[in-house]
Design brief:
mainly alpha
């Protein structure tokens, strides 16, 4: 087709959006109008007009208010685990300070052993704290991600249920490949 004589009516239109909340939207992969246009002109989904670039706020599109309670807890445990790493470095510095004082002759053997033993006990307590906070951090981030994935799957399935049959027929690989991709 000559592009000058038959202008593309869908070239300047953005894809349809699925509204999830007041301020967030999700791009549906191929609008019904675009599917009809693509079937007429032979255009592919890759040539479909896209929206402007995503921002970091788009990461939270699929969060529900109930899910947002998990994220501050996960962030707090991540901060506690990071703080523990700094404390670990300071404690190692204290142990090396005791060892260097012993090497310089400023401390006798029993006093150095007592101080190093005390710092090693603190390191063991810190290790238990590491174990707890890193485990909680991993658990909470995994729960947060799974809740978001569940919300995304539900939104995607509900949008697929609202599609017209012509959209399904326009899929060149068929719906089986789409279903497999959504479920994994």
């Amino acid at each position: 087709m000559d592009s000058k004589s038959d202008p593309d009516p869908y070239a300047s239109q953005p894809a349809k959006m699925l509204s999830l909340s007041q301020n967030s939207v999700v791009n549906i992969s191929m609008s019904d109008e675009w599917a009809e246009h693509a079937s007429r002109t032979g255009a592919s989904e890759q040539s479909q007009p896209r929206c402007a670039g995503a921002t970091w706020l788009d990461l939270f599109v699929f969060n529900t208010p109930r899910q947002l309670g998990v994220m501050p807890c996960a962030l707090a445990t991540a901060c506690a685990a990071a703080t523990g790493k700094a404390i670990y470095t300071i404690m190692l510095g204290k142990i090396f300070d005791v060892v260097s004082k012993y090497g310089a002759g400023a401390l006798d053997g029993s006093e150095a052993l007592t101080q190093v033993s005390r710092w090693c006990a603190y390191l063991c307590a810190l290790g238990v704290g590491f174990w707890i906070f890193n485990g909680l951090e991993m658990l909470l981030w995994m729960v947060s991600g799974e809740l978001r994935a569940k919300s995304a799957r539900r939104t995607l399935f509900s949008s697929l249920l609202q599609k017209k049959m012509a959209w399904y027929d326009s899929r060149e690989d068929g719906m089986a490949s789409v279903i497999i991709r959504i479920q994994t």
